[in-house]
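re the bet — no i am not wrong, look at it urself. input seq straight from the record:
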Amino acid sequence: MHIDIITVVPELLRSPFEHSIMKRAGDKGLLDINVIQLRNFGLGIHKQVDDYQFGGGAGMVMMCEPLDTCIMSLKSERTYDQVIYMTPDGQTFNQKIANRLSCFENLMIICGHYKGIDQRIRDMHVTMELSIGDYVLSGGELAAAVVVDAIGRLIPGVLNDETSALTDSFQDNLLAPPVYTRPADFKGHKVPEILLSGHERKIDEWRYEEALRLTTEKRPDLL
């Protein structure tokens, strides 16, 4: 999978993709993340990318010309399955969306900043608008990192055990069951006997029942 991310603050995206699972995905050649500095397409000697709002109001708006030039330059190199804009008023990102996006080959993500991007760019180029929650961040970079991480770990071969992602919370509209590791007895708190039994079918049944119990208690809206 190839993902291009357009941003005015590429530094915010450096660390999430240079460590842990995302780095291993890149090293394996399974995930290619390209962070593009929008200011390289800015206007004039100062590489301007934002301006005041028409109609007045607080907050700067990212301009059409730099974004359009950048997007068209990228589109000349490949065809994108989705052009995603990270915005608080987008649809709320969830596991089902992550699953669907993980099946694509080429994605473009536009990170808003300041007051957002000129509406005409949304009308002309954006095919999907995503939010990671009902709150406002300083820019779309951290939200984009969340989306890429959620997508990237689903790509076959990224995780050492590919079944791991299939048992995560939300994959089947249930929260994940409790997990335990050694020691079996820690300060009097013991691992449930069923998990030590080696009986695979009964363990699966216990995990399902626990997942259902936790979902009923914590997130009944998922049921």
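see?? The two ends are 32 Å apart (CA to CA). told u. also The longest strand covers residues 82-92. so pay up
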